[in-house]
What does this fold into?
Amino acid sequence: MSRFAIIVEFDLLEGSFDLFHQEAMKNAGASKNEEPGCQVFDVLIPNKEKNRIVLYEVYDSEAAFQEHLMTRHFKDFSNRVSGLVRDRKLNKFGVSNTT
It folds into this structure.
């Protein structure tokens, strides 16, 4: 089984940062606490970019990530932030280090 990571970059609508950040933190906490396949879920705030948030997530496998997409907390997060996002970019990675 190979670990799987994603980086999701969100370009937010003006004035949406605080609400989006709050919702992303809730989703991250639920993912870490309720999903055994979620190893890392960090909410990154780029320096000097007030309308951008990046999520860095590591899962046991791509299947564990697919399970994440089916959880109630993920679906709730997606619904609550759908009107706050101007653009979204998702990158998928295999993880090759041993730690």
